[in-house]
Amino acid sequence: MTALVLGIETSCDETGIGIVRGHTLLADALASSVDQHARFGGVVPEVASRAHLEALVPTMQRALDEAKVTLADIDAIAVTSGPGLAGALLVGVAAAKGYALAAEKPIYGVNHLAAHVAVDTLEHGPLPEPAIAMLVSGGHSSLLLVDDLTAGVTPLGATIDDAAGEAFDKVARLLGLGFPGGPIIDRSAREGDPGSIAFPRGLTAPKDQAAHRFDFSFSGLKTAVARWVEARERAGEPVPVADVSASFQEAVVDVLTAKAIDACLTNGVGTLVIGGGVAANSRLRVLAEERAAKHGIAVRVPRPQLCTDNGAMVAALGSHLVAAGVAPSRLDLPADSAMNLTTVSVPG
Ligand code: KG4
Ligand code: ZN
């Protein structure tokens, strides 16, 4: 019988517990502290840690109930070891160790970014390797070459300043739209004209090709939006929020998709998988499909609930590791806020 794997995610502001058998998702329980961070315009680490502590046990119970299993039925426990907020990670890692020790189950400390890639298998089955993965969230924007998801992934590029989701959140704040900004801008952009304002495309100039071909930069774009809005306000003119949203969003997704396709073509790879909160963006999904189709590249994007942080992604990666016969981690595995992408799971 295929192993039943439970995954625990606490790297940022979502307490997630998922249960997976093979590629089948049996439970995906989530508690979010996003509302507690809204008035600060970003995640406050101490508030997040406290919220994880309060949510963990009830979320665990909900996941077990949803899957109609008990802890004794679980074959392995996977937990996000990093990267993420140190205090938040610590809550999940400590809980996973407690459950693993009490129930005498093997434990896998896994990489959060690799889990964002693995979650796609729950929707689309085994991932063809090699694949290019683009992870775009509030904390990360990276392009990765995935040769073998059990062994490690090769970073091709990353943001040199703000993450893509961070740019959405900051622009939403300066437009007075609320937090988190991505979904709100996505909605607002549908009423606007993406070609109305020519915002800059970071790191796409010919001079950037050599050193930053697969890197991203969104801080110049954010500043350009702020200047444009200020100029309008100074002139006493109304700010066309939908047009600004649409033009900003177009600048982000134009660069993301162009670089992702370039990474596929340069590496001779026919599959692009997109994950992370920003992968929920409706325009990103359409443009990536459109551009990839021209080159015969298959695009895999999980449904929006699986793109944002959740426990299912951790369980999916754990399940993949168990199936591949990877050894579990040691029980003293760390919460590693700066965990490197070359480590998919903490060695035994
Ligand atoms: O993966 P995630 O839930 O958490 C992190 O690991 O950061 O990503 C959250 C980020 C936020 O910045 C949020 O604004 C962004 O994903 N986001 C979106 C959309 N939905 C969420 N960005 C653009 N369009 C969306 N529809
Ligand atoms: Zn994430």
Summarize the structure in words.
By secondary structure, the protein is of the alpha/beta class. The chain has two domains: 4-119 and 310-323, Nucleotidyltransferase, domain 5 (2-Layer Sandwich), CATH 3.30.420; 128-302, 2-Layer Sandwich (Nucleotidyltransferase, domain 5). It has 13 helices and ten strands. A five-stranded mixed beta sheet has the order 3-2-1-4-5, with helices on both faces. Helix 6 (164-174) packs across helix 7 (181-189), helix 6 (164-174) packs parallel to helix 9 (219-234) and helix 9 (219-234) packs antiparallel against helix 10 (241-266). The longest helix is centred in the C-terminal third of the chain and has 26 residues, at 241-266. The chain starts with a strand and ends in a 25-residue tail after the last helix. The mean pLDDT is 96. The structure holds 5'-O-[(R)-(carboxyoxy)(hydroxy)phosphoryl]adenosine (KG4) and zinc ion (ZN). 5'-O-[(R)-(carboxyoxy)(hydroxy)phosphoryl]adenosine (KG4) binds next to helix 6 and helix 7.
